[in-house]
Amino acid sequence: EVYADYAATTPVDRDILKNIIDNADEFGNPSSIHKAGKRAKAQLEKARRQTAALLNASASEIIFTSGATEANNMAIRGVIGRRDRPHVITTEVEHASVLNTFKALEADAEVTYVPADERGVVDMAALKRALREDTALVSIMLVNNETGVMQPIYEIREMLSGSDALLHVDAVQAFGHMTVDVEDFGVDLLSLSAHKLYGPKGVGLLYKSKDVHLDPVITGGSQERDARGGTENTMWIQAMAAAMQKASDEMTRRSIREMQLKELLLNTLTSAEIPFQVNGDVNQSASHIINLYFPWTDAEFLLTALDMAGICLSAGSACHAGTLEPSHVLSSMYGETDRSTKSIRFSFSYMMTDEEIERIAEALGDIYERLMN
Ligand code: PLP
């Protein structure tokens, strides 16, 4: 089997997993005041300092969550909940965890959805037009999970300078592939997930600048400085910190390899004369994701045929993979064309081999030939 769906999720790093199991004796509740609790608390706070340092944040600005979906909900609901029907802005190409959260809050906030252009980049003129004096929040992803296209974070920050709007960034697909520095970006809120960077599923974090106040979404005990009730998942939090550390330490090596794999795929498909077009601007995309339009067949058919050939790929967001609706990202970029139903996302890992890429290209070539004859 060839798996090329690493933007959907990655395997857990075995060394990190082993380390966690070796430390499993330390099982205390970080809120307990006895020694076992204090040791667990120390572990938790060590992980918090480590993740904070990797983002150039302070430890007090990190809130651990059950993943990026929760972190995104925490940021968006937390800002909107404190205000009286505020004006907020997001883009049409966000992940479902952002988009559907705003949709669910349309009675509580006035939401403007900004489209992306054909490069996959948010329409900056439309963003500028949308921005108002009373805009409370702008939520924009750093790297798109379907196309890999990076949003111009510095230009967006610049546009917001002088405005009171908070900037929330979903950086799930960025960390480990590029430097994520909250100070340098000038963001107020930033979401991450461990399972996209060889950590476990079900753990993530929200960076929240110390100047920002949010309404808590998960109420309960006073964990996470009252921001999120519930006993902290100390084991997985430590695993996330270790995975982030490793992803950061190995970032250059990993992303160079991912870019090589991406280029190899494009070159192999071109020399095999399999017709395709790249969706979005390949020069503005993260190292590990490429989205290709195959005008000669439907993505649904192609994905099934590839799956039968032992190739695991997806059309974009895994959350929609079961139904395979037209991609909302590609529809925003290109309008209602067949690109939205005839495109596939390839997402790479530094662990992949050249042979795996060749097998993907071969399988695509076989399917193309069968359809043409
Ligand atoms: N945001 C983006 C851009 C994603 O790709 C994902 C992936 O699923 C998420 C958010 C949700 O993360 P999680 O699975 O940790 O809830």
From TrEMBL:
Its EC number is 2.8.1.7. SUPFAM superfamilies: PLP-dependent transferases. InterPro entries: Aminotrans_V_dom, Aminotrans_V_PyrdxlP_BS, Cysteine_dSase, PyrdxlP-dep_Trfase, PyrdxlP-dep_Trfase_major, PyrdxlP-dep_Trfase_small. One of its GO terms (molecular function) is cysteine desulfurase activity. Coiled coil: none annotated. It catalyses: (sulfur carrier)-H + L-cysteine = (sulfur carrier)-SH + L-alanine. Keywords: Iron, Iron-sulfur, Metal-binding, Pyridoxal phosphate, Transferase. Its cofactor is pyridoxal 5'-phosphate. Residues 2-359 form the Aminotransferase class V domain. It is an enzyme of class 2 (transferase). Transmembrane segments: none annotated. Pfam families: Aminotran_5 (PF00266). Belongs to the class-V pyridoxal-phosphate-dependent aminotransferase family. NifS/IscS subfamily. This is cysteine desulfurase. It comes from Salinicoccus roseus. The lineage of its organism: Bacteria, Bacillati, Bacillota, Bacilli, Bacillales.
